[in-house]
Amino acid sequence: MSKNSPITKTFTKIRNFTSPLGLIGLITVTIIVLLAIFAPWIVPHDPFAIDATKRLIPPFWVDGGSTTYLLGTDHVGRDILSRLIYGGRVSLLVGLFSVIISGVIGLLLGLLAGYLGGTWVDHVLMRVVDAILAIPTLLLVLVAIVVFEPGLITLIVVIGLTSWPQYTRLVRGEVLSVKQREFVQLAYTLGAPHTYLIRRHILPNVVSSFIVVATIGIASAILTESSLSFLGLGVQPPDITWGGMLNDGRNYIATSWWIATFPGLAITITVLAITFVGDWFRDVLDPRLKQGGEGNE
Predict the structure, then answer these.
(1) Which of 201, 211, 196, 171 is closest to 13 using CA atoms?
(2) Nearest to 45 by CA among 8, 73, 5
(3) Model's pTM, two decimal places?
């Protein structure tokens, strides 16, 4: 791989750029991902097991708590820690795969609109994007969830299909800028095919901005999933979600605060960690921070 390629420059920039918050976010996200992957082997108790004799046990540091249940139990005796670990699997799945769906659609349509900038195709796509962006994403998701049966797959698809306009607008703007550069104009003048221009010259120079927005989009999707699950319109029981755990604990917040507090903290920490990583990527990939070269010439 050429040392002047955008990918090589990106990794060089990452090695040379340090960010305490970015590093903390990356470590936190890595831990959460590993916990989610190995959840069946590391949870201390069966997260689905109900035991009425163990209900509402507080965390181990509170009077009445037990080291057997480090974070306590909920109103039906289920272990909070085990459910938190399993709940992370759903949140990460929704965040990752919904962004893959919306990102692929947004990237392809953004490349098309930007490359054909000024044509009827560009105008039609942008008007559709404007119309969708004018409606709050959560409202669109709520309407779609009401129409279709709530569930994990439905939630992933719905969030993915309602979040692509932001990627389309971003990529289109980047493409409009990149295609005016000298190396792209020269390749076009020499008769390079359109597919070659997009694949070789345009796409590598817009992908960095796309990665930044997609990373932060994962955090947004996790928040959307948690909100819907809290309302009972997201992933349905017996699947475990942090939003569903919040809903379980809302009636006990005054007496058994740990039922809702720990899933709330899990959502907050996860979203903040992903946001820190996204901000770090933004600083690393920001063209204004590059010291040498201008893209893939």
Answers:
(1) 211
(2) 73
(3) 0.83
